Amino acid sequence: MTAIKAINFAVDQGIIRDERKYSSENLEDMKIIWYKLKDDVNFNIKCSALTLIYKSFSTLTYKSGFTGYTLEQIAMAFSKYNPLSDMPNNYGKDCADWYQVIHKYNH
Length: 107
Prior knowledge:
Blueprint: H1 2-12, H2 27-39, H3 41-59, H4 71-81, H5 90-106
Helix pairs in contact: 1-3, 2-3, 3-4, 4-5
């Protein structure tokens, strides 16, 4: 389960300190995460962000400093979040475009 991998990565990297590590081999851990994702909007958003970080670091070997990513790197990170292929896809490109708009108005 990707959420568990992302949480464990974030705990190991010291990115978060408010979660424990979980095991995708443990049915109870899987159940806990599934229900938290289903029932807790804030947890779901947190795991979405952690998944983007996890995929950026582990799969794409990007470094920290997300604000310095190119638009292609951002598109690739979003493509890995919802993988349809190893190449940037329309989902990743669309998300990168929205990221630019949101980033512009948050700064």
